[in-house]
Amino acid sequence: MKRILYEDLETALKAREAKIAVLGQGYIGLPTSLLMARAGFTVYGFDVNRNLIEGLSRGETHLRHEKGISELLDELKERNYFPTGDLSELYGSDVVLIAVPTPKGKDGPNLTMVLSALESALKIVRRGGLIVIESTLPPRTFYDLIIPTVESNGLRVGRDLYLAYCPERALPGKLLHELVHNFRIIGAIDEKSGRLAKILYESFVKGGIEVVDPLTAEMVKLVENSYRDVNIAFANEVARMCEVLGVDVRRVRELANRHPRVNMLVPGIGVGGSCLTKDPWFLFWASQERGYRPNLIKRARELNAEMPYHYADVLDDVVRRLKGGRSGVIAVLGSTYKGDVPDPRESPVEPFVKELIKRGHAVKVYDPLVRSSFGGEYAPDILEAVEEADAVAFVTDHTEFKMIDLRKLRGAIRKEGPVILFDGRLLFDPKEAEEAGFIYISVGRPPKILEGSLITIEGDE
Ligand SMILES: NC(=O)c1ccc[n+]([C@@H]2O[C@H](COP(=O)([O-])OP(=O)(O)OC[C@H]3O[C@@H](n4cnc5c(N)ncnc54)[C@H](O)[C@@H]3O)[C@@H](O)[C@H]2O)c1
């Protein structure tokens, strides 16, 4: 494979004539490939998942709910975007991007896929070419594992190969928009690697780019998500306290947030998504291994992970009290981890549904964006989900749910007796829900029914 000179690579990137291979065509790899192809590069999208590649070759994408992706695929496929499962087509790539999963294992990160992709990248990239890792890496991985792996292949970083870490932070549901408009961080091993990576990303990023060292880039990505997780955990902790103390978290939050320096988030049934549920652990493990145990981050992660089990417990208890100890039919509305986001990965709804099933309830799940039902019966529409329900659990804050007419919903349920509405995302006004004919229970509010009429909620009329 002929070596490319640094100046020639820089020129090819500026002219958008470089041949780019992207390893991994999932949530991140596919839209990034398409954006670089739209910018004019020739992009080969490689994935080990044959079905995915066959679908893309036919013009079908698993990300069809992502705005703009299907259209870009139609426009660019076989023009300058080529999905492939054949690594040999990628030989001689000037640039290789790695966007494969880096999941968490039980007691540490699982880096097998990123290392395997790196081995592939080293086989296909030209000498003098650029490898960029987009997959999330635990802190120090770039220095302690990536560079040694490259050098153990007889390559000198900064001479035979340029290397950068560009962590991805885009949100499913808004991928194309965020990939273009978010501020990007490039962690580069040396000045030349940073310059090459910056030229590459400038071809489609409008949100600004900062080049730093790889360790800073690793930390920033993980700190951002840990910050979110800890702040959500704080709101969840307040909600749990309100439940036992007899006060509604809604009112507490509303008033506390009037303070000029307080901005408490909305508590809810839990936190999900592929990144928020693992990034704090990556930070925790890496720091603990080196002598500092970040307990706040660990406890926040645990508290958020406990939430769906806690509310399955609350709902199970309320349903059984209403039904003289028997289990019931529960309609779960929403399965994605976040409202209007078509991504069910690591959704807190999964443990919630599984726990309810384990406790003997019949669970029907409806989501307007995905078909995941986590072992419950999938309902194709909301009316079918709720018609037999003893309880309706709103667990994802989709816009469709926020707009719902609760009276009509109650009317669609063929039950004479009381029906419970569990509000896992604080979407509804308790009074309105009760006036519509529901027994209303929610996050951050003591379920009145548990104590009969004995428990009053401070602030309620
Ligand atoms: N999805 C997100 O919201 C998001 C956001 C920020 C960062 N990230 C990070 O981006 C990385 C990729 O995440 P994703 O959500 O795109 O994952 P994904 O599961 O949607 O896609 C990854 C793809 O990589 C493929 N793959 C696995 N091993 C491979 C290999 N050796 N060679 C080629 N392909 C291979 C898989 O088949 C899969 O299609 C992860 O490290 C993740 O933490 C994801």
Note poorly predicted spans: 450-456
- Give the CA-CA distance, first to last residue: 78 Å
Query: Which range does the strand content fall in?
Result: 5-15%
CATH architecture of the largest domain, please? 3-Layer(aba) Sandwich
State the CATH topology of the largest domain: Rossmann fold
Judged by helices, strands and strand pairing, the structural class is: alpha/beta
* Total count of helical runs of at least 4 residues: 17
Average residue-wise pLDDT: 94
Please write the CATH class name of the largest domain: Alpha Beta
How many runs of DSSP E, i.e. beta strands? 14
- The CATH superfamily name of the largest domain is NAD(P)-binding Rossmann-like Domain
Question: Could you describe the largest sheet, including whether it forms a barrel?
Answer: 8 strands, mixed
Portion of residues within helices: 40-55%
Q: Which ions, cofactors or small ligands are bound in this entry?
A: nicotinamide-adenine-dinucleotide
Task: Describe this structure in a few short sentences.
This protein is an alpha/beta fold and 461 residues long. It is 41% helix and 15% strand.
Walk me through the structure.
The chain is an alpha/beta fold. It has 17 helices and 14 strands. It has helices at residues 6-14, 29-38, 50-57, 69-76, 112-124, 141-152, 175-181, 191-202, 214-245, 249-256, 279-289, 295-322, 349-358, 382-386, 399-402, 406-412, 430-435; strands spanning 19-23, 42-46, 81-84, 93-98, 125-133, 161-165, 184-188, 209-212, 329-333, 362-366, 377-378, 391-394, 419-423, 438-442. Strands 3-2-1-4-5-6-7-8 form an eight-stranded mixed beta sheet, sandwiched between helices. It has a six-stranded parallel beta sheet with strand order 11-10-9-12-13-14. α9 (214-245) runs parallel beside α12 and α11 packs across α12 (295-322). The longest helix has 32 residues, at 214-245. The chain is elongated. It binds nicotinamide-adenine-dinucleotide. Nicotinamide-adenine-dinucleotide binds next to α5.
